[in-house]
Request: fold
Amino acid sequence: LVNMLAEQLAASQGAAPDPFLHALALSISANLAYLGVEPELRASGCLQFLQDALTSDRPKTVHYAVAGIQNMTNRDPESVAAVKRNRAAVAALRRHLDSDDETLFLNASGAVTNISREVKAKSVLGPDGRKRTELVLGPPPPTATSIAAVAFGMDSLLSAGQSRLHKAQERRLAVRRNRAARVIQSGARAWRARVLASELREQWLVRSVAAVSIQSSMRRHTAR
Reply:
């Protein structure tokens, strides 16, 4: 499946790509990355195709590309390192921090937070007992200052970039709180609706039983 996705994404780099198939392949890649298939996707070239799609002029393509980058960089240090090296991808993600689209903003800010982590080389013992080097991720930086310094490492971003990223962090928290509040309110309304429906059913049953009893009594009275 991963190789088929890579082939479809490669085909979508042509002169006349099919927008639907391109967006579909990006969407599947994002979902597979969420499920933990990042190394296979990266090895097949899907990560690079996701980065290339960040600058597309098709909104749906950009949505899936940003979501895919966020999922690819959530756990995989190799993906984080690759995106951090791609200045065009980093610049595109930063632009999406100003998006009015709530979902696009959340995915972009999540990707920026992911790539802000430090990537370190660690010596470990392989299955054969020999030492080998692998990359590991550090914790997310606690402040916008460290995000600007670690994730981007560009002098031009260390002044104005800090304020912008700090605002993005605050907006991300606010959006997530608002979404959580809407979910809670929706759940409360659903619970209240079920309670009301149960009360109405109970009242209807009581009235039905009373009506049957009255009709039965009237029939017995008429029969006498």
About this structure: DSSP finds ten helices and two strands in the chain.
